[in-house]
């Protein structure tokens, strides 16, 4: 059998595809990337940093890691559902990650793991409350019987389930009493952020959106939500301005206004100019 130590490369080395800085790599050639990077990192004639970039994360006390509970929650979710969100999350993932904040005070891997774990905990909590409510309805309606102490406690609730739906304005009124109800236009939840009103707080792109973001360079340095909100507001304002002024239809008319003809030299309501050298009747007698 071939010794496994012969097949394994010696540490330290950079794997192929590493796009970071490797000292003196541009001046060396003739070997593969792993062997060449190993020699360059071990060469004493080349200036190196005091600490290697690739460190052992399991032994380094300065490395910030996600909590063990969050990792277990994310792994259990990936085993039970479609494993899109799986620990560790790569920083090159451009898709949407729930509960990912705009503040970059932690590494991407930790923020992504915490966001997915919080989302999964909220989902499990909501799911358990719905199952508890459905079980209470079954027990109080008589479709099923309690099997343990916990289910017996559900029978002693303040209200009997299922509740009867009664609107507040119809309480104490007969069924045949007609009430004029004001028509309310249903909300449209499929409106594009481009055409939302500027005062709408939902006028922004969610994290993971890889399409065009208008006026992105103008508001550079702000968080993703604030940057896209300001950019979309500027886009909508410019669009409405051009639609109202530049893109408005122009009506061309061939009709010319006819001015009234007035060939009179001596007018009743205006005087003559001082430079007038023509004849003025009766001027020499005054």
UniProtKB/TrEMBL annotation:
GO cellular component, one term: microtubule cytoskeleton
Superkingdom of origin: Eukaryota
Ciliary microtubule inner protein 2A-C-like domain mapped to chain residues: 11-43
Localization of this protein: Cytoplasm, Cytoskeleton, Cilium axoneme
Classification via InterPro entries: CMI2A-C-like_dom
Keyword hit for Glycoprotein: no
Keyword annotations from UniProtKB, A to Z: Cell projection, Cytoplasm, Cytoskeleton
Annotated family: Belongs to the CIMIP2 family.
Record protein name field: UPF0605 protein CG18335 isoform X2
Lineage, highest ranks first: Eukaryota, Metazoa, Ecdysozoa, Arthropoda, Hexapoda
């Amino acid at each position: 059998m071939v010794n496994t130590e012969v097949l394994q490369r010696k540490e330290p080395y950079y794997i192929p595809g590493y796009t970071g800085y490797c000292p003196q790599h541009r001046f060396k050639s003739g070997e593969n990337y792993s062997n060449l990077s190993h020699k360059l990192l071990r060469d004493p004639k080349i200036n190196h940093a005091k600490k290697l970039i690739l460190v052992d994360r399991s032994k380094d006390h300065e490395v910030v890691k996600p909590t063990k509970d969050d990792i277990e929650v994310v792994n259990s979710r990936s085993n039970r559902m479609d494993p899109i969100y799986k620990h560790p999350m790569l920083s090159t993932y451009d898709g949407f990650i729930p509960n990912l904040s705009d503040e970059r005070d932690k590494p991407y891997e930790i923020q992504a793991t915490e966001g997915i774990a919080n989302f999964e905990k909220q989902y499990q909590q909501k799911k358990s409350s719905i199952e508890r409510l459905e079980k209470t309805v079954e027990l109080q309606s008589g479709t099923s019987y309690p099997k343990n102490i916990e289910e017996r406690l559900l029978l002693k609730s303040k209200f009997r389930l299922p509740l009867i739906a009664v609107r507040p304005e119809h309480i104490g009124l007969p069924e045949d009493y007609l009430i004029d109800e004001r028509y309310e236009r249903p909300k449209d939840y499929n409106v594009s952020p481009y055409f939302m009103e500027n005062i709408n707080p939902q006028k922004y792109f969610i994290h993971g959106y890889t399409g065009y973001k208008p006026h992105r360079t103008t508001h550079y340095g702000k968080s993703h939500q604030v940057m896209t909100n300001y950019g979309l507001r500027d886009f909508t304002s410019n669009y409405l301005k051009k639609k109202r002024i530049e893109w408005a239809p122009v009506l061309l008319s061939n009709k010319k206004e006819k001015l009234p003809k007035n060939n009179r030299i001596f007018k009743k309501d205006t005087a003559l100019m001082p430079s007038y050298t023509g004849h003025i009747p009766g001027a020499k007698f005054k």
